[in-house]
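Q: I'm writing up a methods section and want to include an example of the input and output format. Could you take the sequence below and give the corresponding predicted structure tokens, formatted cleanly so I can copy it straight into the document?
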Amino acid sequence: MKKPTFTAQGDASADIVIVGSGVVGGLMANELVSQGYSVLVLEAGLRIDRAQAVENWRNMPFANRAGSDFQGLYPQSKFAPAPLYFPPNNYVNVTGPNASSFQQGYLRTVGGTTWHWAASCWRHHPSDFVMQSKYGVGRDWPISYDELEPWYCRAENEIGVAGPNDPHMQSPVERSQPYPMDMVPFAHGDNYFASVVNPHGYNLVPIPQGRSTRPWEGRPTCCGNNNCQPICPIGAMYNGIHHIERAERNGAVVLAEAVVYKIDTDGNNRITAVHWKDASGASHKASGKAFALACNGIETPRLLLLSANGGNPNGIANGSDMVGRNMMDHSGFHCSFLTEEPVWLGRGPAQSSCMVGYRDGEFRRDYSANKMILNNISRVVAATQQALKKGLVGKALDEEIRYRSVHSVDISISLEPLPIRKPLNPK
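A: Here is the clean output for your methods example:
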């Protein structure tokens, strides 16, 4: 078992140095250490304990829980803060007319943000790769869906994705292998909703998700706790920490509270080392044969730009001047309403089904594709807020909460807008 080496001063050397310990960093670390390389993973944030995170969630104030505070239960490193919104710490301080809608909730901690994701594991649609050729908008990708498809299969097997084996319930249907595990069974609400919307072409299908429907790689079967966001209490949902722990068992070394702040390059403009500061503020250097930055879509470009040097005045790997630009997100909105029939949402995973009837089609020449997720998060908190606003008390309050809890629906509508290329400094 080949391991990184350390000097008495705390400097390190490894075949592979990975910055960031989320799902990408963890997958790479385990793959490379399993091939015999020495691997060092540097993580800016803290190492957390699942049981403590669960306890933190149980003890959060009602306002935080009602506001879907998925960040606040995770401890923050003083030297590696992450975005907080209760109250906001303005860590991601975006300005502009639409900046308030860009509120990313990502973690800086060992295991990364998949500690509190919904575990939805969608593939791109084949049409997404050829938007210009097929619909006359956007750009075509330089690779095809068919080229990427085997790698989707490999990623789904690594994560342990549960999905439908019936092609009529898949999106997209172009697959060369079945999902590793069968789908999370539809609950009453999914079946009822499908019976209402599918005759109109909305096509409610199961969400492929990184969640165990049978024991998988040490993970137990999902038992329907329903608080996948912000923390799966039993570890049935895939988190990046699963691959980090696997990589450590295979010989990788993971350092928490190791804030990388500079990248060294040589005369051939090859990366030779990264510098990090530990929890005491002392600086160390990690040299290696190859380096991977896996810090997410905000922290990775930030580090590349922060590391500008004489040979790279605009930042590392930024000869194109595109590092940090063209960041995309899904715009969208929520729609909530009461149904005539009880739907009993809130038992099982936080998300289990989605309407994909308008994910692709000729309409994309003029309008955005979309998918509409039937959120399965318990509606009790929302029902309580709404009932209290009506001024009810006593038995009337109790009955209103009960009614709304079983009849309430929340749909998350995500749009797939195209990028708009604008001048850097528009006048």
